[in-house]
Amino acid sequence: MLKILLALDLSPHSRRAAEYVSRVAPQLQGCSVTALVVSSGIPYSAGQEGIDSKEEPEVHGYEDHRKEVQEVETFLEEIRDLLLKGGLSPEALNLRIKPLGRGVALDILDEAQIAGCDTIVVGRRGLSTVQSLLMGSVSSTIVKNADGRAVWVVE
Q1: Which residues pair with 82 in a beta bridge?
Q2: Are 80 and 35 in contact (CB under 8 A)?
Q3: Any idea where the domains of the chain sit in the sequence?
Q4: What is the dihedral of CA 148, 108, 105, 59, to 10 degrees?
Q5: Residue 37 CA to chain centroid, in angstroms?
Q6: How many CB atoms lie within 10 A of CB 62?
Q7: d(C-alpha 41, C-alpha 120), whole Å
Q8: FRET pair for 138, CA 20 to 30 Å: which of 23, 39, 100, 153?
Q9: 148: which DSSP letter?
């Protein structure tokens, strides 16, 4: 059974990756999808296991973090609807919000390991070569460190 980790970040690039998965995953027999957002708005004390989007998350005290978590929850519901409309069964879909820990890319890789995912799907922000060198790139870090997992980078 193919397990896909769909790494999301509220960007249009991330949405395009979700749209791609919504077309491909339902065609793959027995495929399951975990849609994951790594969020700085959830305290790390929430634990490495993160939270299921059905739970009420503990949020850092600042209003901007509360707003961030609400935006993440709204975005995940949109992605849920997109994937279900594409034909993925509700039982094959898991929505997760994980606290920022070691860094977005490493947290995504950790989640793929924990969930036993063999494929990671990310959107590419389209950074120039210079920007990627200076700021790094989540997608390039994931590709370099995927350790035996397929990585689909959707542009």
Answers
A1: none
A2: yes
A3: 3-154
A4: -170
A5: 4
A6: 10
A7: 23
A8: 23
A9: S
CA–CA distance, 100 with 135 (Å, rounded to integer): 17
Q: Where does the chain have alpha helices with state H?
A: 12-24, 63-85, 104-115, 129-135, 138-145
Per the CB < 8 A criterion, the answer to whether 86 and 31 are in contact is no
Does domain 3-154 fall under CATH 3.40.50.620? My reply is yes
- Structure tokens given for 3: 């397990």
Cα–Cα distance measured from residue 136 to residue 57, given in angstroms and rounded to the nearest whole number:
29
**Maximum mean pLDDT: which of 9-13, 56-60, 83-87, 127-131:** 83-87
Kindly give, in sequence order, each residue whose CB lies less than 8 Å from that of residue 24, ignoring residues fewer than 6 positions away. none
Indicate the pTM of the whole model. Answer: 0.82
Which helix (H) or strand (E) element contains residue 144? Answer: helix 138-145
In angstroms, the CA 40 to CA 131 distance is 22
pLDDT in tens, 89-115: 999 999 999 988 889 999 999 999 999
